[in-house]
């Protein structure tokens, strides 16, 4: 596999001594280095996915470790090589280390030749700012131990289920995900920052409102923004080769959206339904506001456009400025179809839909908002078009069928295709206005703004 693997991942860890201001380094020929591992793979894995990294580092050092956070990554496109650096926490003895590893006082770091040099830069920057991380709970030492106590308490009712293991699956400023194994069952624990707390109330609402559309919840702690849910199995929609599964997933998602416009096929006060979603904490991103938000972004928030590897060029910024009148016109045209705002998942793709006992479970609602319903299918269709490009129309038809109570099929198709032209703008503004402003590690999400604006330019050009 090493000769043909598509990606190479080099992962380094900053490991601080539990009780002293020292960092773990390993001796190498000609200098010192942070503990690091490297592997090759055919499948891409995000910097957020840390289960394998934890296992590899534990095997390298023969200690128990967890990941606190990723500080950043560099990517060489020519070789498809990812270099990532993480902060890690030690959970076992700090004395029984490999012979080539030792603890170095942080005041003496400049006396050691650390390679590569970029790692020393990352290390010094993190040491200078680490006291600022206190607002993110899972960046704190001992957070994992406290989370384990809460999990054990949640599993003690109605009858005790002793823990067998807890595995860290993913970590970012946007949340921390753990897989919990007992003797008989598996669960997932999720902790969220305050700006995503609406996922907790929304999941409870959806679990009551339409059973079998979201994972079954075991416990929810709204004060600490965390939940425990049953494992819903390992089969996600992207693993299904049956197009009927994909069609049914979209049909049921449309019904879920419509359920928040009307009840039992009876049209009710739409404003009351929107108010209910707002009371659950769902933010609004109205269609009519998108052009003005884009204009403000282009003139006063340009750091979101340029300070990222996916940065826009000056020419692309000029084209977006020039396209503003067209974008305003298209938004007005889409609004003219009269489709009500409703629940929009924000990240609806095949890996966020699980197949479980005949149910289709929609999970990871952190990016959800109240918006034009048809924007939801933008990421979903990106998934499918690479796999089954000829299936797009059949999937569109499956999704639109429940919407026929609002308009004729021909009008729905027109509105849908128009919405797909504008959907990249919606997603870019979702990131730029509802998520990134709350984040300290803006790099984790910032690439999504220019990336989606580039897609917007392409779709405006292709259609025009």
UniProtKB/TrEMBL annotation:
It comes from Ktedonobacter racemifer DSM 44963. This is Aminoglycoside phosphotransferase. InterPro entries: Kinase-like_dom_sf (IPR011009). Keywords: Transferase. GO terms for molecular function: transferase activity. It comes from the Bacteria.
